[in-house]
Amino acid sequence: MLKLNTLCLFLLLSFYGMAQSPLQPGFTLLEKGDFEQAETFFEGYLADDPKNKTALICYGRAVGLSGEPEKATGMFSSLLEEYPGDFEIQINYNESFLWDKKFKEAEPLYAQLVKEYPENFGAVLGYANTLSNLKKYEKALEWVERALIIQPGNLSAKTSRKYMRLGYANAYVNAQNYKKGETLLKEIFIDFPEDRDALLNLANLYLITKEVDDAKAIYKRLATSEKDSITSLNGIALAEHIGENDKQALVVATTAKEKADAFDDATIKEQTYDRYVQALIWNRKYIKAKTEIAELETQYTNKNWLYALKAMLGLYTGSPKKSVANYDAILKNDSASFDGNLGKANALFAADRIVPAYNAAFGTLKVFKDQKDAIGFIDKLNISFTPTIDEHLAYTFDNGNNVAFSTNTTATVPLSTKFSTNLAYYYRTTENTVTDNKASSHVLSAGFDYKFLPKTTFKAVVGLNKSSFGAESYTQPVIDTKLLLQPFKLQNLELGYKREIQSFNADLIEREIIMNHFGFNYNLGTNFNLGWYTQAIHTTQSDNNTRNLLFTSLYYNLMRKPALKVGLNYQYLSFAEQVPTIYFSPEKYQAVEIFADLRGDISENTQYMMSAATGLQQVEDDPNTVIFRAETGITHKFSKRFSGNLYGKYSNIASATAAGFEYTEIGLKLKWLITKKPLFYNKIVK
């Protein structure tokens, strides 16, 4: 965060240089910043000379600058009654409002003062600083330039200009006008070459814009001393992380830790240990990170950075409730903490507590107006709950001479963070190019999702399926219900029942086969990149046949960016009755395959995915045959509210279709956010 200096101006009034030897010790104390001692000195002096105006002014300054600005304002106000129009008293009176951070009250006072004394350096610079504290940076810079015309090269004025540029640059960065912010920061080097504050803010700007090489170059410029070299390494480690090179980030952070251990500076050590543990977490070395945190807690107590590390570890390891508790501890220490406020919002979101997450993000923006990350977080929440229309078009053909075209249009309208409704229309037409057998299906359905507990959601869809073949048709109800829950950390379970009509090809549609699926999906994640997914389905059919399906997959996440997953799949399929002339229905079918799945970014708005699997399958006791399936797709975000996905896939696995054919599908998915924000947004915004 950019640290703005209040810049209370220590005006060295003309009387400071006067040959008044009795007051000289007090002047010296004021100049050195020993305000409490100065207050004692002038209080004692006034006991003997209560009407000395100079001593009274200096006493007022000492009182105000030692922590009682309101009392000082009252003292100067009384002096103005006794000496109306006195410039020295008036300028101290004005400045006392700055000490008390009452910048709005000070602004008109300084405006009047510079109107009366336009060539007075102290008045002009005081007005400039007042405007700067009110974040009126453009006007403040105009007035500080006037002060520098009056006293060219004045160090106080240059220092004021530096902090004005820092504040103005920060405002531009928050408004995402990075080029203007960069220009202002670089202008600081004219007065203060290689200024540390300017370099740190410039490096932070480059981190925000992900110009990693530029950020690292700035951090290297900071390394002009042993202490700053450690700060430099800490910054470079963060830059490596943002540049998605976490292994190098840990190497750099480890080097910084070794240097900090040998350096006697408590603040540097805390900053470096903080970055080192972050780097361990980035590299998924969770056990080591937990051990390091435990050791640090024996040395440091009630430290916000330690609470932040524990919260970060909780988010990475699937323990968001613990993260919320740690962010609460940060906010107890500092209610204006950025990490505490936005960190809590992210933790609440991870814990599936959406409304509290919204409130925490709104609270962040109250403290940090227009902060980019907080706005981005709220946008992410909004997208999750904004009404949408999804369109899915697909063209399918197989080696059994069946071709099909389908379209599925779904409108989803969340009415709250817990309750959402949907309406869908599905149409599929299919024909066999050899037999000329044609059929079509129309399905109209409506449903809802209700989250009655965090991470526990019930979904239900009911509708009607009208299937037509030749001159005949029939209508059947369809049902799809699911219960989605997370029984334990890093585990997801889905229980479901689905009633559907077989519609793969014209022959099956004509037979009016109703299928009732009862099943579950279970996924177990771990903190060491290994995962296990299992699906089990028992199906009863209207033709009195039954089917049992088991699919299980053990997978390992090799990389995160791009995301590369590899694994081993096993599938078992069994039908009670074998009717091979109608549909694929073996007594026993097994398949084993290895697979790889790769997903990543082509650009900021374009992503890709590729997956492939190959292995062996066995039908009944027949010899093993080779299977292969593959899918690829590209997704592009055309605007904030409209995106599309083009994909293609192929499979020759026998169980992929009801008929046991190999098939190819080409499809297009479109998604449009109907409104800019959720319908309930105005009810929760604060």
UniProtKB/TrEMBL annotation:
Keywords: Repeat, Signal, TPR repeat. InterPro entries: CellSynth/LPSAsmb/PSIAsmb, TPR-like_helical_dom_sf, TPR_rpt. The keyword Repeat applies. It comes from Zobellia barbeyronii. It comes from the Bacteria. Residues 1-19 form the signal peptide. The keyword Signal applies. PANTHER family: LIPOPOLYSACCHARIDE ASSEMBLY PROTEIN B, TPR REPEAT-CONTAINING PROTEIN PA4667. SUPFAM superfamilies: Porins, TPR-like. This is Tetratricopeptide repeat protein.
